[in-house]
Amino acid sequence: MEKNEPILNGICCEVDNCVHNNGACCCTAHEIRVKNRSAHPEETMCETFREV
After folding, report:
1. From the CA atom positions of the chain, what is the Rg in Å?
2. Where are the domains of the chain?
3. Cα separation of 41 and 8, whole Å?
4. In angstroms, how far is the first alpha carbon of the chain from the final one?
5. Model confidence over 1-52: pLDDT tens digits?
6. Distance CA 13, CA 52 (A)
7. How far, in whole angstroms, is CA 23 from its chain's centroid?
């Protein structure tokens, strides 16, 4: 993690292959949009995910 790297406080991301994951489970996206996954109603999906 860079010293001045912006992170979204309170957001823990376990998706290792997302360009917004800083390697320490922190999300560095400017904002995120979250929606329900129809196949698994108890889970959510980040619409801002971009694969590395």
Report:
1. 12
2. 1-52
3. 24
4. 16
5. 556 778 888 889 889 999 999 999 999 998 999 887 777 778 888 888 888 8
6. 14
7. 11
